[in-house]
DNA sequence: ATATTATTTAAGTATTTGCTTAAATAATTA
DNA sequence: TAATTATTTAAGCAAATACTTAAATAATAT
């Protein structure tokens, strides 16, 4: 099907619309990748996991289960999603798997962490 | 029900677990708020809308429908979600509603935009 | 070997999400 | 006033999400 215009208003700026399409094309891959990371961090439980890893270095699934007061499988499934995109990595020590942030995977997340810390409630 | 521990391993660092719970408590409100913004930006269509608003200043729903090649109601519903949390605002000019980013609403998003631009594909 | 512990994986389910189409508002024009 | 245009809102639905419980791995200890 041909490209259908939804908007017929006189003020519609065709050059602007073309420029926007081009901008999206140029940044398409980055936008897709960043939106994936943001979708992961957009879940409160996962953001807590990432934030804690940033604070503590490494933690294991049962630590998170204790801290977040949720089941170990639920934690494990969140962790897997973040591992799948390379946000976090694991290290085995006996039966325990320690998870940690992959450094410099995504600058956006670094900024998210500092932003959370900046707004820390002053006791 | 009482707080049940999932993890009984000897190495479990009770002080660390307490510290983590406290950290989450202290930052609870911020984490909740930021995760909401990230969840919104974690949708590729919405991230494109936000990115375009950052580039162009203001655009109307039918502009987005044209650019993103999707229906006007679909765009409108995405826009509403972002307006509901105060990420964007509207200005009416006749029949047309122009949407724009609310400045300084969230520093995290500013960083997301610069991160997208930084990775721009070099033509 | 068997049992225990830490974790993952799988299957099932309720909720949420993102679209669709149709109808409702709102402003403009004839 | 009636018709047109821009937009929102509502209802319905398929797909995705986040949990649950039970079963499967994997490492350690008895």
TrEMBL record, chains A, B:
Recorded source organism is Maribacter polysiphoniae
Keyword annotations for this protein, in alphabetical order, are: DNA-binding, Transcription, Transcription regulation
Q: Where is the HTH arsR-type domain?
A: 26-121
Stored InterPro entries: ArsR-like_HTH, HTH_ArsR_DNA-bd_dom, Metal_resp_trans_reg, WH-like_DNA-bd_sf, WH_DNA-bd_sf
Instruction: Spell out the molecular function terms from Gene Ontology.
Output: DNA binding; DNA-binding transcription factor activity
Which residues belong to the signal peptide in this entry?
none
Which Gene3D superfamilies does the entry mention? Answer: Winged helix-like DNA-binding domain superfamily/Winged helix DNA-binding domain
**Name of this protein:** DNA-binding transcriptional ArsR family regulator
């Amino acid at each position: 099907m041909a490209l259908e215009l939804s908007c017929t208003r006189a003020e519609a700026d065709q050059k602007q619309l073309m420029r926007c399409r081009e901008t999206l094309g140029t940044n398409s891959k980055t936008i897709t990748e960043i939106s994936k990371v943001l979708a992961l961090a957009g879940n409160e439980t996962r953001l807590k996991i990432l934030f804690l890893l940033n604070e503590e270095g490494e933690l294991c699934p049962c630590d998170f289960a204790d801290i977040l007061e949720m089941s170990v499988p639920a934690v494990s499934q969140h962790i897997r999603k973040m591992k799948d995109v390379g946000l976090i990595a694991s290290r085995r020590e006996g039966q325990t798997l320690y998870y940690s942030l992959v450094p410099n995977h995504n600058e956006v997340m670094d900024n998210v962490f500092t932003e959370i810390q900046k707004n820390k409630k002053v006791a």
